[in-house]
Amino acid sequence: MQNSPELFVFIMAGGSGERFWPLSRREIPKQLLCLFSDKPLLGETLERVKGLAAADHTFILTNHQQRHATLQALPDFPAQQLIAEPAKRDTAPAAALATAIAHAQNPNAVVILLPADHLIKNISAFRQNLLDAARQAAESENLVTIAIRPSHSSTAYGYLKLSPASHQAKANATIFHQVERFVEKPALATAKEYLASGQYAWNAGMFAWRASVFYKEAQSLAPELASFIEKFPANREDATAYITECFPSLPKISVDYAIMEKASSVIAAQSEFDWDDVGSWSSLATHLPQDANGNTVRGDAVLHEASNNIVVSGGRHIALCGVDNLVVVEVGDTVLVCHRDQVQNVKNLLPHLPEKLL
């Protein structure tokens, strides 16, 4: 299946730049930030999938507002493989667009659809899971998703309830479970029950399906998406005009709500790789070095009798004295200071900020 002419890889790289404000902005969202290496998260994602599909079958789906910054961040990526959505929708229209591009070339092509901004270190296990998921999609009528083994009782993720019955694609390869249902982000008590049961996994928003199977599901579950796929032109120039004209009218809805939760059959590949969705500034403390007092520092900073802080300097010197559990981020025109317990609420600041800071 690897590098097969029937395999297409699409990376969803939109976003509004809210969770990592002030470093991220509308035109420079999280996936364009170099948080853990000298490459942006999107660049790291591209490296992970390199060679799975042919070079001209690997696409980035972004939006028109972020197209220029994305090309600047990835100077070696072919501009014609970067598809700029003309309006912000959600993952269902993005999934339909990816499927339409593949379907126009070959209805039996397999689509792999991935987020751009996750952190995965075990690349070989990740690639093996993806290839096995792609094979299952190619050989069955299933839509396939990736099930992440939960490491703790998280309330930040949606969950998949998995059937106890499972099968392996081949010896020593990925285990697959039937997905019984999709579950929204639960309360803590419920998340603890999910973890204890062993029947639930995190929903990472990674998918594989045959283009014809997704199209068939969309015909009954989301006719507007099906129509978009059906009429999509095979010619690149015509396709660009079609996207500009027709994409903005697609419904703003997630692929889980529109298709996956109601589809005829969804199976999940049990992940064998580490995973972090890098959902807030707290992720830096998980993956970057810490000093003896548990502080995580990027850039110029001096800390005295301070512990468990996350400090990011964009150029100016930062000094902390006698404070604990803070996030302090300085970038050019802005300084963010918040308690580590409140990092998920940074996005709630944005409606109160002047337009020039967004």
Mean pLDDT: 93
Poorly predicted runs: none
What do we call the CATH topology of the largest domain? Spore Coat Polysaccharide Biosynthesis Protein SpsA, Chain A
Strand-residue fraction? 25-35%
Give a quick account of the main beta sheet: strands, pairing sense, barrel closure. Answer: 5 strands, mixed, barrel
Rg, Cα atoms, Å: 21 Å
| CATH class identity of the largest domain | Alpha Beta
User: For this structure, what is the CATH homologous superfamily of the largest domain?
Assistant: Spore Coat Polysaccharide Biosynthesis Protein SpsA, Chain A
What percentage of residues falls in helices of 4 or more residues? 25-40%
Helix and strand pattern: EHEHEHEHEEEHEHHHHEHEEEEEE
Shape verdict? globular
Helix/sheet category: alpha/beta
Number of domains: 2
- Give a count of the beta strands, DSSP E runs of length 2 or more: 15
Order of strands in the sheet with most strands: 5-8-6-7-9
Gross CATH architecture of the largest domain:
Alpha-Beta Complex
* Span between termini: 43 Å
Q: What is the count of helical runs?
A: 10
